[in-house]
Amino acid sequence: MSRHSLDAKRLLCPLPVIRTQDKVKQLKSGDQLEVSCTDPGVMQDIPAWCRINGHTIMSTQENQGVYIIVLEVGKNE
Fold this sequence. Notes:
- The chain is of the alpha+beta class.
- It is 29% helix and 35% strand.
- It has helices at 15-24, 42-53; strands spanning 3-8, 32-37, 56-63, 66-72.
């Protein structure tokens, strides 16, 4: 398991989700990805994408307009 990060700040929907999807394709099952965004919509969009694609949300937080989502990669097909 390794931890990775993705800077998706200043991107608007659907780009943060697309960038997250592209990054997850490069990772292994069990890896964690920390996504930093400024679009508040990601707080619903990325968890919904994770549920559909078999990934797990580990944590979410907001700090001064930056939304941080940590997910664990499920089985990539």
